[in-house]
Amino acid sequence: MDHIDFNRLKTGEVNLGTSIMAVQFDGGVVIGADSRTTTGSYIANRVTDKLTHVHDRIYCCRSGSAADTQAVADIVHYSLQMYSQTASEPPSVHHAASVFQKLCYENKDQLSAGIIVAGWDKEVGPSVYNIPLGGGLFRQPWAIGGSGSTYVYGYCDATYQEGWGRDETVNFVKNSRVAALALAMSRDGSSGGVIRMCVITEDKVERLFVPGDELPKFWEGHEVLGAPALKKHSGVDTGIVPMAVEV
Amino acid sequence: MTSLGADTRATEGPIVADKNCEKIHHITESIRCCGAGTAADTEFTTALISSNMELHALSTGSKPRVVTAMTMLKQMLFRYQGQVGAALVLGGVDATGPHLFTIHPHGSTDKLPYVTMGSGSLAAMAVFESGWRANMEREDALNLVKAAISAGIFNDLGSGSNIDACIITASHTEMLRNVEMPNMRVQKERKYAFRRGTTAWKTENVRDLVVNEQITFVGGDAMDTT
């Protein structure tokens, strides 16, 4: 098929082409995703929410088959609800990631799902777990996934720094988050639309939204032969609009 | 308020099998489902979930919710891994308000303010993308739906015939069967039957196919309860 072949999707299946990422910082995690769902070359949903709640302070970013990831996330959501009731305490992010991993690994032949689990818990604080196609579990300080992620590995490697604190960096993290996603979205045909982000901390989950026309612009490309070059200024003023706050 | 629309053409490959079929299926009083894809699959899937929704409502004692139907549908379709070719647009009003979902054959769902499915979905979506606004009145919404279905009927070979619509509000569901019929057959210009005697014949032989008739009453008048 075309460049989404590596996801081994069946014909007609809805694909979360996607750029997703999650970054851990001192007091929490920031997760972000684009909003495009495709069936072949048609965009089935241009405002998808790929950041799925599985527990109060645990979210997952979904990439791959929409049906597979929705089904898996629903099962994990149910499982964590039951866990909370029986254990009388919220599950750890590690536990949530393990539940995801169990499903993704044991059904690896039937599934096409790349998931990033991120959240905050009392024992460890913030954590990010990457679960790529094969069902392996990798805890990382930051993780990117989806077809668009390939375009920003270099950018992320170069930009990420350890030990970012909360205030000074929530902004910076947002910017780098948004910038990385915007870069991925501009290069990957299967990613696009708007940017959705969540900042998960001990106190609350803050949902953020960047509409498509307010994405940071980078080098947009121009015809070299003939016409005079119009230099684009790499603006990182993202104008992020805070949305309703979840506690 | 949720409004749903559909065309009325059912095809078997290049042939139109049914020129006026009903694609808006009943799930509950206030929830309807439009079905695209394999006709048998949409018919039976919606009927199954409709039945289960009624049982569920009796079991819970509450008015049925659109998300319940959505979850039942998506879990069943996912179980069949896309082999059940039902692409559905599920809409309705429940205790939590109006909702609209789209469900793909593999079991993925999207919750959106406006959706289209089927072979004519691109044509219909083009109309929605240019015409949709938030909080539209009943009349505007119905006109938009009709325009979108028309776009499918006239620009997609897999869609045709008439427009069905359904308006669902908190208090009342209105099914508008054949609300518009933009493809009525023109009146034939003359009678095309052949006159008796057009085909010449040499002999005529009329036979009664009933040779012998005997009427025997079986079992008596009353129902046999022995």
UniProtKB/TrEMBL annotation, chain A:
Biological process (GO), any one: proteolysis involved in protein catabolic process
Reaction catalysis annotation: Cleavage of peptide bonds with very broad specificity
Alphabetical keyword list: Cytoplasm, Hydrolase, Nucleus, Protease, Proteasome, Threonine protease, Zymogen
Entry annotation: catalytic residues: T18
Pfam families: Proteasome
This protein's record includes keyword Hydrolase: yes
GO terms for cellular component: cytoplasm; nucleus; proteasome core complex, beta-subunit complex
UniProt keyword Hydrolase, yes or no: yes
N-terminal signal peptide: none
Molecular function as annotated in GO: threonine-type endopeptidase activity
Localization: Cytoplasm; Nucleus
Main location per the UniProt record: cytoplasm
Annotated family: Belongs to the peptidase T1B family.
Subunit structure: Component of the proteasome complex.
Function statement: Component of the proteasome, a multicatalytic proteinase complex which is characterized by its ability to cleave peptides with Arg, Phe, Tyr, Leu, and Glu adjacent to the leaving group at neutral or slightly basic pH. The proteasome has an ATP-dependent proteolytic activity.
Protein name: Proteasome subunit beta
Organism of derivation: Tricholomella constricta
UniProtKB/TrEMBL annotation, chain B:
Keyword hit for Cytoplasm: yes
GO MF annotation list: threonine-type endopeptidase activity
Subcellular localization(s) per the UniProt record: Nucleus
One GO CC term, this protein: cytoplasm
EC number, UniProt record: 3.4.25.1
Gene3D superfamilies: Glutamine Phosphoribosylpyrophosphate, subunit 1, domain 1
Catalytic activity: Cleavage of peptide bonds with very broad specificity
Domain Proteasome beta subunit C-terminal: 182-214
Keywords: Cytoplasm, Hydrolase, Nucleus, Protease, Proteasome, Threonine protease
Pfam short name (any one): Proteasome
Superkingdom of this protein's organism: Eukaryota
GO biological process: proteolysis involved in protein catabolic process
Primary site of residence: nucleus
InterPro entries in UniProt: Ntn_hydrolases_N (IPR029055), Proteasome_bsu_C (IPR024689), Proteasome_sua/b (IPR001353), Proteasome_suB-type (IPR023333)
Top EC class for this record: hydrolase
Coiled-coil ranges (or none): none
CDD domains hit by this protein: proteasome_beta_type_7
Matching PANTHER family: METALLOPROTEASE TLDD, PROTEASOME SUBUNIT BETA TYPE-7
Record's protein name: proteasome endopeptidase complex
Protein source organism: Tricholomella constricta
